[in-house]
């Protein structure tokens, strides 16, 4: 690594010469350093030093985690169900956020525990109010895609102070809900990093 | 590193000899490899190879994060306040979990949004029920300490399916609540890892 730092870009042959080693002896070491990301190899140019520390390389690895690696199954309700039924669904399914869909099964709104709690201390009869009166609706819904970097979605959850986001697929008519990503999923990702599980 | 792998434990002097280098030339390299955790140095024994990869070393680093590095300020209510007032406090303070304390300011219970939502769809008058009727109470409360490894608390939040835990100080009479650790804090820790911020 010191030789590559000092003389890079440098060919494997020249490195071997400086170390008084054969190219063949050196090859596995160069392969490991390249795989680990400390060195980069370019055809017809040679090896150069990436300048990355072990920690930076690990940060790069975290950035490669995708939403689809950690997402959960979404729980949806129709926009005409009552607030009372939505609360019951939330308890039965044991989730913190429900997604509301229209008659074409496209994303129409989001209901958090906070939204439902706010409605429940109001004076209205919960069985008489449809969820589309109290839900957060498009275009005010933060959505994400299964290929999004997990870490970016984590940052958006924090920034927007929300617990969950629908994972969607864009169609001509609107968004189909294909998943749910929450702070619980982020906590699991954090744990799996420490277990060297990613 | 290959020399230490093959011959360790081995003194710096012997390594230098094998490389045809002076001890002085080698010293900074050995210092870096030791600091990074790849090698370990024992007085009067020499260097040996720890067998840890960059990823394992990063996992070790995560395991050193403490609760106190990420905890938030706790929001507490007295055990005699009504469920209605607790809900209002939850909205005013914008938290997902309240801690309930007794007349000596010791931890008596925990109130999640889920607990409050469940109570709010009941038939009772929310201003007439004290929180100690519906709260999760000692000894069923999961608590943690400011020196606990963050990652262990993250695992317990997932295992117990709760959003938050009180950070406590143990006294002769009971637990004083000194902090709050939540899945939001865990999400922030996850983000800070990717930013190489720990």
Automatic annotation (TrEMBL), chains A, B:
It comes from Geobacillus stearothermophilus. Keywords: CBS domain, Repeat. PROSITE patterns: CBS (PS51371). This is Transcriptional regulator. InterPro entries: CBS_dom, CBS_dom_sf, CBS_domain-containing, HTH_11, UCP026546_HTH-CBS, WH-like_DNA-bd_sf, WH_DNA-bd_sf. Pfam families: CBS, HTH_11. SMART domains: CBS. It comes from the Bacteria. Residues 70-129, 135-198 form the CBS domain. Transmembrane segments: none annotated.
């Amino acid at each position: 690594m010191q030789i590559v730092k000092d003389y890079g870009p440098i060919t494997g042959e020249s490195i071997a010469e400086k170390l008084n080693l054969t190219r063949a002896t050196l090859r596995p070491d160069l392969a490991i350093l390249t795989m680990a990301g400390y060195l980069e190899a370019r055809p017809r140019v040679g090896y150069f030093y990436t300048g990355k520390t072990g920690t930076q390389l690990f940060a790069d690895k975290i950035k490669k985690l995708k939403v689809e690696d950690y997402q959960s199954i979404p729980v949806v309700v129709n926009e005409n169900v009552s607030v009372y039924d939505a609360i019951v669904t939330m308890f039965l399914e044991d989730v913190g956020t429900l997604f509301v869909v229209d008659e074409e099964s496209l994303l129409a709104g989001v209901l958090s525990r906070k939204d439902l709690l706010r409605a429940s201390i109001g004076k209205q009869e919960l069985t008489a109010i449809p969820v589309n009166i109290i839900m957060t609706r498009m275009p005010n819904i933060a959505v994400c895609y299964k290929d999004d970097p997990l870490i970016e979605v984590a940052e958006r959850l924090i920034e927007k102070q929300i617990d969950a986001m629908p994972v969607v697929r864009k169609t001509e008519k609107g968004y189909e809900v294909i998943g749910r990503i929450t702070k619980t999923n982020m906590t699991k990702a954090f744990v799996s990093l420490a277990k060297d599980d990613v």
